[in-house]
Amino acid sequence: MKLQRKNRRALALGALAVSGALALTACGSDDTGGNGNGGDSTASTQAGNIKCDDAKGQLQASGSSAQKNAIDAWVKQYVAACKSVQINYNPTGSGAGITAFTQGQTAFAGSDSALKPDEIEASKKVCSGGQGIDLPMVGGPIAVGFNVPGVDTLVLDAPTLAKIFDSQIKNWNDPAIAKLNPDAKLPDLKIQAFHRSDESGTTDNFTKYLKAAAPKDWKYEPGKSWEAEGGQSAQGSSGLAQQVKQTSGAISYFELSYAKDGIKTVDVKTEAAEPVKATVENATAAIGAAKVVGTGKDLALELDYTPSAAGAYPIVLVTYEIVCDKGNKAETLPTTKSFLNYIASEDGQNLLADAGYAPMPEEIITKVRETISGLS
Question: Where in the numbering of this chain does the PBP domain appear (predicted)?
Fold first, then answer.
């Protein structure tokens, strides 16, 4: 799998050599988008492979903060090629993104959880003759970041994580943590557990993991809203990462792409012989076992939060782009299809690993591409 990824990166690097002249040939020289990125030669690197078609004007989208860093990378490439387009993605969180979409405020939404039946029903009001569908586009590990002075490597399992985030384990030198980390010098320090204050698909997936892997210790139902008592909260994945970085004794959950600037991440003990690190490769190993459970054109996935295979990281999420299968607004449909076609393409998916995300498995992304081509 690693060799295959290197080959894909090599292809992506080959695409980077495409000249700006070829970009203009592919998409025209219209520079009326006002996005400020048209003159960036670095952003124009993939332009020769991006098909703008009839894309133009502004495209409004919002939702998952988990995919923000991926969206930023995609938009940089796309608007360099399609200069008459401006894409505005607001990382409001999955819940708010779905609400904005079902109210007709955006062309598509990003969500780390598939649409629920009531949300599908609500989408029919804005999808004339159709409904909202889930297109899995971005994968990755939900890293558990920690800030414990003197501790560089930390192993935790699902029951211990459940007790930490339910305020049942309150100190870093607790016997349960010490048993999993016999060589660590755990300080006598209060645990500062942070969770999302906003509705979040990341919270939904993290609590699904806790419920599946530690059912005796996590008594709450999974969901976008945090249900456990105690702890502290922050807005968005970036807010949680910032709290971990600046708070001694902190622990929280966020996408791997936010675990930067020295933030350390937990190795998760599973049924496998060795604890599993939060890496793109280890997340891909877990996502590869997902099953498509959506019906019709909907491609919602069922993830396995209790993998036993060596190197399969158990806390993963998939971010969906939610769009109407039929009844998209005529003025935004060409741009929506063009952008979604790009991010689902080989070039678009190749950008993900370097940004800390996992590309979709080939069998899944092939179905996504076929579905996008049929949007109307």
Answer: 55-346
Give the SS3 label for residue 167: coil
Sign, Cα dihedral of 342, 347, 350, 355: negative
pLDDT for residue 24: 26
Average pLDDT, rounded, for the chain: 88
| Tokens linked to 13 | 């690097």
Nearest by Cα to 198 from 254, 116, 250, 246: 254
* Distance of alpha carbon 25 from alpha carbon 28, whole angstroms: 6
Q: What pLDDT, in 10s, does the model give residues 44-91?
A: 445 568 999 999 999 999 999 889 999 999 999 999 999 999 999 999
Q: Which CATH number fits domain 2-138+323-373: 3.30.1330.130, 3.40.190.10, 2.30.30.240, 3.10.20.310?
A: 3.40.190.10
Task: Provide the pLDDT for residue 47.
Answer: 58
Q: Which residues are annotated as a binding site for phosphate?
A: 64-66, 94, 112, 200-202
CATH topology for 142-285 is D-Maltodextrin-Binding Protein; domain 2 (3.40.190)
Instruction: Write out the DSSP string of 325-374.
Output: SS---TTTHHHHHHHHHHHHSHHHHHTTGGGT-BPPPHHHHHHHHHHHHT
pTM of the model: 0.76
Domain boundaries, the chain: 2-138+323-373, 142-285
Q: How many residues does the chain have?
A: 376
Contact 297, 325 (CB under 8 A): yes
Residue numbering of the annotated binding site: 64-66, 94, 112, 200-202
Three-state secondary-structure class, residue 121: helix
Buried b (16+ CB within 10 A) or exposed e, 35-54: bebbeeeebbbbbbbbebee
Residue 280: in which H helix or E strand, if any? helix 280-287
